[in-house]
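Q: Could you fold this chain for me?
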Amino acid sequence: MLHSFTRNHNDLSTEAGFQFEFFCDCCGNGVKSTFVESTTYGQKSKSERFGRMASGIGSLLGGKANDLGWALERGSDIINNKFGGESPQWRKEYEQAFDEAQEEVKPEFRKCPACNKWVCEDCWNEDEGLCTECAPREASYVAQAHSRAMQRNIDEAAETATVWKGSIESRTTVCPSCGKPSGNGKFCNHCGAPLGMNKCPSCGASVAQGLKFCGECGSPMNAKNVCPECGYENEPSMKFCGTQRQY
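A: Sure. Below is the predicted structure, expressed as structure tokens.
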């Protein structure tokens, strides 16, 4: 079994040749080795061409020549299996290529003496002689600490900040006349009906248009405001009679 000097590597090899990619143990960036052509693959290609040629000659001559072609092609299959991906020759060549690939890419990495990780140049602190996980660069660490402190300050300020200063009151959102969304104005956007708040004739609380009872005291909104002296029917919100000046 092959052992990589880094914790992770990728085998990019094919039957035609060998190539490997080794990854930084910190950030995961990879470095590929140079592609090395397999010598056994070249021999395999030659044997395949020879087998096909012999098979063609046998089909033309027939009889014994055809038998000879079959034997040669059969021999070609045996050679292919011998020099295929599972052959001892190919395996030896593969392992040698893996060792050479590691020696090729090792100069692109540094081994941290504290954690024994192999890291790329981006993850190496040259001043401290350690990887950036064991010894973060001062400038980067200060910037990160500053950013974290700023986020904490913003969160703390947001907890106590007043983000809305409007008054909380009931508003008519559906027009009592047409039943459609009325908008935020004083009149309905669809039919133009007034959307002002009514006042309860009993307690004077603001009541949305269309409601039949006051939400504060429960009195009916259509109760008549009749003067006890003259019997004149005043507006529900009037505190004094319009004819007798008393109520």
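A (continued): Confidence is low (pLDDT under 50) at residues 49-76, 78-85.
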